[in-house]
Amino acid sequence: MVVATDTLALVGAPTDRPPSPPGVLDRATFEEEALQHAEQLYRIGLRLSGSSQVAEDLVQETYLRAFRNRASFRPGSNLAAWMATILRNAYLDDVRRASRRPVSEPIDETTDYYLYNRLAQQAEASQQALLDRLSSSDVLDSLAELPPNFREVVVLVDIGDFSYADAAEILGIPIGTVMSRLHRGRRLLKRALADHVAHPEEA
After folding, report:
1. What is the CATH T-level fold of the domain 114-202, as seen in this structure?
2. CATH fold for domain 2-98
3. pLDDT tens-place string over residues 119-150
4. In the chain, which end has fewer C-beta atoms inside a 10 angstrom radius, N or C?
């Protein structure tokens, strides 16, 4: 992702930095591994914010914070979850500054989402017919209608493809809470998706 690689220039070239202290990944290795998660972070940022521009800004801010604070990352632990935590914190900071700004930008992406696949596996024939009539904007609008605590869990598990344990770590809540919020969030999302199909003129 361009926005992630461009961030490297903002924190300087590897030769501009002193050698890594013991127990800390060297910068080149850290950057190489961190950049592998750019697309996943973008998907999470997009589903949380509902805006492609905000998602790009969140990814850039995430990498800036990650590169500047890589000494706090424990080698051997889950780098994707560590960075997703940074992205979520950046998103929450953004929301506080903007006082819950409304979603104002349309999303044009038409890629296959993990959420589609997950719902399709569990759907009956009637539910599958309903999903076939949905557009990506319907999914984003429906996600935006979920309460934030449910939306975060659905985004992390069903879109970010994080495990329950990873989501619990990112959100700082018990794994049982993740499971209950995910169950409730999926039910609310399916209801919202059904409403979008039943009343497309209101979307």
Report:
1. Arc Repressor Mutant, subunit A (1.10.10)
2. Rna Polymerase Sigma Factor; Chain: A (1.10.1740)
3. 444 444 444 444 445 456 677 778 888 899 99
4. C
